[in-house]
From TrEMBL:
UniProt name for this protein: NAD-dependent protein deacetylase
Family per record: Belongs to the sirtuin family. Class U subfamily.
Binding of Zn(2+), residues: 123, 126, 144, 146
Job of this protein: NAD-dependent protein deacetylase which modulates the activities of several enzymes which are inactive in their acetylated form.
Signal peptide: none
CC cofactor: Zn(2+)
Residues annotated as catalytic: 115
Cofactor note: Binds 1 zinc ion per subunit.
PANTHER family in alphabetical order: NAD-DEPENDENT PROTEIN DEACYLASE, NAD-DEPENDENT PROTEIN DEACYLASE SIRTUIN-5, MITOCHONDRIAL-RELATED
Subcellular location: Cytoplasm
Lineage: Bacteria, Bacillati, Bacillota, Clostridia, Eubacteriales
Top-level taxon: Bacteria
Catalyzed reactions: N(6)-acetyl-L-lysyl-[protein] + NAD(+) + H2O = 2''-O-acetyl-ADP-D-ribose + nicotinamide + L-lysyl-[protein]
Pfam families referenced in this protein's UniProt entry, alphabetically: SIR2
Amino acid sequence: MLKELIDTYQNIVFFGGAGVSTESGIPDFRSVDGLYNEIYDYPPETIISHSFFVKNPKEFFRFYKNKMIYPNAAPNVTHKALAHLEQQGKVKAVVTQNIDGLHQMAGSKCVYELHGSVHRNYCMNCGKFFGLDAVLEADGVPKCSCGGTIKPDVVLYEEGLDGKTVSGAIAAIQNADLLVVGGTSLTVYPAAGMIDYFRGDKLILINKTVTPFDSRADIVINESLGSVFKEILEGDK
């Protein structure tokens, strides 16, 4: 059924969460094995907050480098299928809550990263931008040559989403005929609220567990994204 809809529509948007990248070996936050179940001196929500970053950057980066960055992760079948469908002119945009950059690595061009990216980092003093290596190779808190602290361009707790990114994502969702939502519990706001902007024909939800939006969907698929998109990708060859 999903393959038939993808074949039918020409303006598709994919909205994804942590479940998109778990099959690349990146754990999500809220599953049994996720970060929220790890034991640290502080709760993960506290460590990855803006105020904690400012007050205790050394501890922030210790956690961030250990638990938030996966430099060896590679795109999985979902990332590859979405990039393929974009190349076909069907998927017009990917809206993601992930910060791993795997959609772009797979070849997707129009990606709205609601929560930023680990691959972008900037000096809080002079504004100079750095790649991921600046954080990975730093001993402790990464510093710019000007002496300023290098901050990951990711949205921490207590910080707002980037306005330009949000506007682009909303416009893409509003203009879509088919919205496919996958790998997200749809409980994290304001990101989850973007589904409310969809006015198109069909809403598809793919998630292993139920979401608050299931009753509004035309199709609900409680399977792994990998199994769903593998069929789509293989059926398109």
